[in-house]
Amino acid sequence: MALSWPAAATAAICGSCSPPPLPRRRFSRAAAYFVPVCPTGHPGPLFCAASAYPAHPFSPEVAEAVESLYSEFREVDNLVAHNTTRVLKAFQNARVGSHHFGGCTGYGHDDGGGRGALDNVFAEIVGAESAMVRSQFFSGTHAITCALFALLRPGDELLAVAGAPYDTLEEVIGIRNSSSSGSLKNFGITYREVPLAEDGGLNWDALALAVGPQTKCAFIQRSCGYSWRRSLSIIEIQRAIKMIKVQNPDCMVMVDNCYGEFVETCEPPMVGADLIAGSLIKNPGGTIAPCGGYVAGKKIWVEAAAARLSAPGLGVDCGSTPGDVMRAFFQGLFLSPQMVGEAIKGGLLIAEVMASKGYKVQPLPRDPHHDTVQAVQLGSQERLISFCEAVQKNCPIGSFVKPVAGLTAGYASEVIFADGTFIDGSTSELSCDGPLREPFTVFCQQYPHNGFTSIAEQDLCLAGRAPMKPRSSIHPAS
């Protein structure tokens, strides 16, 4: 009996059946999605798919969510194209060549121009006068701390305009454990914060009256951190900067840019920020940079931050960086827009799937993302731990490890991390974390959408253990 084309194709790849001759005809699109099964019923393995484009591996609910997000994913692709164009132009304008990957040793005085080229590329990308991209920054918190100490002097006031700062900055400022740690408070710098509005956004009425003559620096945290609030858009940051400068033109504006790079087509220096800082094992490292951080903004303040990283008088043209690290910085920065785009898609997908299960999510499904963080309120310690365990189990590195909550330097509460990543602590790879405190929220920094399958299929065993009624109000009106 003659076999149909799909049957003939599947028979041809069965390891135990004689392959019949295949008809000479163009492979149809429809045939790309059948599941290959031996037509004779033989249980033997199939060595390969009959098509280079097999059916998706997603569970039905994830497949439905992916399909429903098609238009949102296309918008993200457009964002990636715009940002990639900007990055490419910056590389070309700086005339980046392979000789910039050589690195240096010792004092780092003879680095072949790589350090300066990288700084110039980064400065152009973010629209700043100057930038300092260095492996010597331990973390984003370290870079932000150098920036704050560059801007502030005894008797000055620091004003946080977006509510409480991220946990790791509390000891830097002196909000917590400030007795003798060398915090801003120890140096006679006062601190105030503008509480958030009821909707979780900036409190514009309060901000309009918050800046005084003693306010030397206004601090804006772009991302939500460990707070249940909206992350800030560039338009909101621009409005806040204008409002601050009207009250005190001499007040410097510092933006914690962590998780916000390449999420929009503009960066804070383009709308008036005096200084920004962030980490290279987040967005701008493109999952490749092995360490480091950056500060960027007005040249005078970048140089002041450099003096805090090293020592007054040394400037920015020193500090050794191995060649493999320098190359990774360039390559990671170039790839960053694409990686951030994948993270945004993953966040959209996580919001769609988890909201359909009845969990509160921030941002809401289909809402624009202004950073790469997707928060999910799980409501109990058990669910938070289970979620992180499921993420860790599906990571490429350390999938056999069971994450355990514990005290971590810089954090007030016990925190649980799932980070089976190639770069230790990287939040530009498959990872999530959350403090063990009410309302037990997990913060998912990055989910490449095509790697979400196994996690979403389990739905982290949470819906099965503790069913929740769907929150129809979470979904936007169609």
TrEMBL record:
UniProt superkingdom: Eukaryota
Pfam families: Met_gamma_lyase (PF06838)
Listed InterPro entries: Met_g_lyase_put, PyrdxlP-dep_Trfase, PyrdxlP-dep_Trfase_major
Protein name as annotated: Uncharacterized protein YnbB-like isoform X1
